[in-house]
């Protein structure tokens, strides 16, 4: 990330804003790119005065909202075959296991998965195409998408910008410590959302395991076969109902 920040610092501010919007936009369409790294690096760069935080946040929000909308349209037109092709192309990021977890989140939380997905790497990539493939109503998708994009972009940018400015003021002679502090603050800003997402994933896995443990045919463990209950009388050997 430090290398990315150093590389961005050599670019004109306008190019940085376009790069932020472009990388985050393409990532939101369903292509695995380091959108969050670019945003964090640009926000830290804003703390040094090279770029303006409001333009960084606006570019990130624009890229997130437009990219997710394009991803939604592509997913709605291409459906599950498109997601399968993406999984074959990017198996580490969009393979069958990742797609299954994302679908479980949508099934349980609906459009809220779009909002919280902006703070989780997997859903940030899949939210748009998956919502389109599942035919989520676009108006509901757009509201959740815009809310998540704005909160994520402006919240992350201004939190890191504020912490970076404070670190620069108080830690002028220990610049590396200020950078570490800013990065830690950025991680904390999304900690509770990531923790919520992980809890949801764990609950989904536990529910699947419980369902798998139920014997086939609906017969409970320990029940006699043949559909007849055993008749037990104290002091008498158990017999089948109907036996004499």
Notes on the structure:
This protein is mainly α and 244 residues long. The protein has a domain at 11-164. It has 11 helices and 2 strands, in the order αααααααααααββ. Strands 1-2 form a two-stranded antiparallel sheet. Strand 1 (230-233) and strand 2 form a beta hairpin. Helix 4 (53-89) crosses helix 9. The protein is globular and about 45 Å long. The termini are far apart.
Number of strands: 2
What count of helical segments does DSSP give? 11
Low-confidence parts? 216-236, 239-244
Output the helix-strand order.
HHHHHHHHHHHEE
By secondary-structure content and strand pairing, the structural class works out as mainly alpha
Summarize the model shown:
The protein has helices spanning 2-9, 13-28, 35-47, 53-89, 91-94, 96-109, 112-117, 121-133, 138-170, 175-189, 191-213; strands at residues 230-233, 236-240. The chain is mostly helical. The protein has a domain at 11-164.
Output the keywords.
4% strand; DedA_domain; VTT_dom; disordered C terminus; 244 residues; membrane; transmembrane helix; 2 strands; 75% helix; globular; transmembrane
Helix and strand layout, with pairings?
Elements: H1 2-9, H2 13-28, H3 35-47, H4 53-89, H5 91-94, H6 96-109, H7 112-117, H8 121-133, H9 138-170, H10 175-189, H11 191-213, E1 230-233, E2 236-240
Antiparallel strand pairs: 1-2
Family: Belongs to the DedA family.
Subcellular location: Cell membrane
Membrane topology: Multi-pass membrane protein
């Amino acid at each position: 990330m430090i290398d990315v920040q150093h590389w961005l610092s050599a670019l004109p501010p306008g190019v940085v804003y376009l790069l932020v919007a472009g990388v985050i936009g393409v990532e939101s369409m369903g292509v695995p790119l380091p959108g969050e790294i670019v945003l964090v690096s640009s926000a830290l760069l804003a703390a040094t005065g090279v770029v303006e935080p409001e333009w960084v946040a606006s570019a990130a929000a624009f890229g997130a909202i437009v990219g997710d909308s394009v991803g939604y349209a592509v997913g709605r037109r291409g459906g599950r075959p498109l997601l399968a092709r993406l999984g074959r192309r990017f198996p580490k990021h969009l393979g069958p296991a990742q797609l299954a977890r994302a679908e479980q989140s949508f099934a349980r939380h609906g459009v809220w998965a779009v909002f919280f997905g902006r703070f989780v790497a997997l859903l940030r990539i899949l939210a748009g195409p998956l919502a389109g493939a599942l035919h989520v109503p676009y108006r509901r998708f757009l509201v959740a998408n815009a809310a998540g994009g704005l909160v994520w972009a402006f919240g992350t940018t201004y939190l890191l910008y504020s912490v970076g400015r404070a670190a620069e003021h108080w830690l002028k002679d220990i610049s590396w410590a200020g950078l570490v502090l800013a990065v830690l603050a950025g991680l904390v800003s999304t900690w509770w959302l990531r923790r919520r997402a992980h809890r949801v994933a764990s609950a989904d896995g536990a529910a699947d395991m419980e369902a798998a443990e139920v014997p086939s045919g609906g017969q409970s463990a320990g029940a006699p076969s043949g559909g007849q209950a055993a008749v037990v009388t104290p002091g008498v050997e158990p017999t089948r109902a109907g036996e004499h």
